[in-house]
Automatic annotation (TrEMBL):
Belongs to the 'GDXG' lipolytic enzyme family. Belongs to the type-B carboxylesterase/lipase family. This is Carboxylic ester hydrolase. Residues 2-497 form the Carboxylesterase type B domain. It is an enzyme of class 3 (hydrolase). It comes from the Bacteria. It comes from Gordonia rhizosphera NBRC 16068.
Length: 510
């Protein structure tokens, strides 16, 4: 049992593969964002009397049910009352406060849950003697619509709610993690995919200053943000879709009469969560049909206030929060999307976004045009190239370490996945040694063990002291040294340098 200002939490000791750990699950870090708190900034949690059972994960945020699978035929319950976090710790006394690692899950800002078995922090906590915290936050229409234009004195609507949820969770850590044996002055925030993009956004958010000492961004999509003008278009169209389930729109209607705030408030107050989710799905179809430039119309909103500038502009201007950063992507990033969920842009669309015709031709010439290279080009446009641009900018204000994850098991190779998106998570969380990942390690038991130890040791060393182990130099625009994570690791100078130089011409214009 752990006592905090909010109340008493009763945790559970781990069994079998998680022996030697304790977990506290489903801890509220903010009040339920329901009724009058729907579409509002996270509000303070209300303390409760007595002991709170923390043996089960909290509810997943509202999304399509299939994305909440936690086992064959089992799904995590969903609800708007989803602002909870989970704490994993070694089951032994430490003479000093432990480093803290706060994880933000991915899911393209439309799906995901901290209850996913892949994100169990027990093995990482035990191996590195750290406290691991995993966070549930709002996303999709519940977390990333800007309805603030429809606020009145009686009913206010806020924006950037998902990002503010993450800041609220980090603030909770600052207030409470010492009771769990953690050091609030030594917090590392880390995340993957949309979680990695969230880490980037936090580095560009003044309200997050002082809440973490280090950051790890795995496979971020730096451009997965929404300009304020587009956010207003999406809010308007969302409300029209919510009001009219039969509406079919394929273009931005600039002549439509604005919707009165009173009508919006009545509409949102009476709408069920399922209706809001359904309208959000239809908004995604609208964004694609109207060719708005955003395959997913949800994400941190560049409002000039809470998030002053887009991540790449913030980094280029040297205005990111000056904390050490580990950042990287995976060698075969795009294969997962090509086979399971194709949200990457077509090659032509990826190149259309390159304004200069000569640069566009130069980039195209560096990919041979085959199916795999077309996928690589799209993935490079979304993940790798802008990630390097961010790393170069942030490297001017704080030590920055860049990696490329190349390790792949035989099972992943046979499946045509390779070192694709999210596969590094099996090493970070040690999941090759749990039920969810053991099948991927068939025939590669020893090598997966070595990669788990290597990645966890580096992530743990970075969280502990700010340097990710030995032999990994910082990234700078002269040497451009990158750690290739494989079995074994190696350092390369400017890998894929020709492609990197061509894409740099695109991002240097930011």
């Amino acid at each position: 049992m752990v006592t905090t200002a909010d109340g008493i939490f009763a945790g559970v000791r781990g069994k079998r593969t998680r022996r030697g750990t304790i977990s506290w699950k489903g801890i509220p870090y903010a009040a339920p964002p329901m009724a009058g708190n729907r579409f509002r900034d996270p509000q303070p949690v209300h303390p409760w009397p007595g002991m709170r059972d923390c043996s089960r994960f909290g509810k997943a945020a509202i999304q399509e049910k299939r994305f909440t699978a936690v086992a064959p035929g089992r799904y995590q319950p969903m609800g708007e009352d989803c602002l909870t976090l989970n704490v994993f710790a070694p089951d032994r006394v430490s003479p000093t406060p432990r480093p803290v690692m706060v994880f933000i899950h991915g899911g393209a800002y439309i799906l995901g849950t901290a209850a996913t078995p892949l994100y169990d922090g027990s093995l990482l906590a035990r191996a590195q003697d750290v406290i691991v915290v995993t966070v549930q936050y709002r996303f999709g229409p519940f977390g990333y619509l800007d309805l603030s234009a429809y606020s009145t004195e009686e009913r206010r609507f806020d924006s950037n709610l998902g990002l503010k949820d993450q800041v609220a969770a980090l603030s909770w850590v600052q207030r409470n993690i010492a009771a769990f044996g953690g050091d609030p002055a030594n917090v590392t925030v880390f995340g993957e995919s949309a979680g990695g993009s969230s880490v980037m956004s936090l580095l560009c958010t003044p309200a997050a200053e002082g809440l973490f000492a280090r950051a790890i961004s795995e496979s971020p999509a730096p451009d997965l943000t929404i300009p304020i003008d587009a956010a207003r278009v999406y809010a308007d169209e969302f409300l029209r879709l919510l009001a009219d389930p039969q509406r079919r729109s394929t273009r931005i209607d600039t002549d439509a009469e604005p919707i009165p705030p009173e009508q919006v408030q009545a509409l949102l107050s009476r709408s069920a969560a399922a209706d809001i989710l359904r309208a959000g799905r239809r908004l995604m179809k609208f964004a694609q049909a109207a060719d708005t430039g955003h395959a997913i119309p949800f994400g941190p909103i560049i409002d000039g206030d809470y998030v002053p500038l887009p991540p790449l502009e913030t980094a280029a201007a040297g205005k990111t929060l000056p904390v050490p950063l580990v950042i990287g992507s995976n060698r075969d990033e795009g294969q997962l999307f090509s086979k399971l969920w194709n949200v990457l842009p077509e090659t032509e669309k990826a190149l259309i976004q390159v304004d200069d015709e000569q640069t566009r031709a130069e980039i195209a010439a560096l990919y041979n045009g085959g199916h795999r290279d077309r996928i690589q080009l799209a993935a490079d446009a979304v993940f790798w190239a802008p990630m390097l641009a961010f790393a170069e900018g942030h490297g001017a204000v704080a030590p920055t370490y860049v990696y490329r994850y190349d390790f792949s098991t035989r099972v992943l190779e046979v499946a045509g996945m390779g070192a694709t998106h999210a596969t590094e998570m099996f090493a970070v969380f040690g999941a090759y040694r749990t039920a969810i990942g053991a099948g991927l390690a068939l025939g590669d038991w020893r090598s997966t063990g070595r990669v788990i130890r290597s990645v966890q040791d580096r992530w743990g060393a970075f969280a502990t002291a700010g340097v990710p182990g030995s032999g990994w130099p910082t990234y700078d625009p002269d040497a451009r040294r990158v750690l290739i994570i494989d079995d074994p690791d190696r350092v390369e100078h400017d890998p894929d340098g020709a492609r990197r130089a061509a894409w740099k011409k695109v991002h240097s214009a930011v």
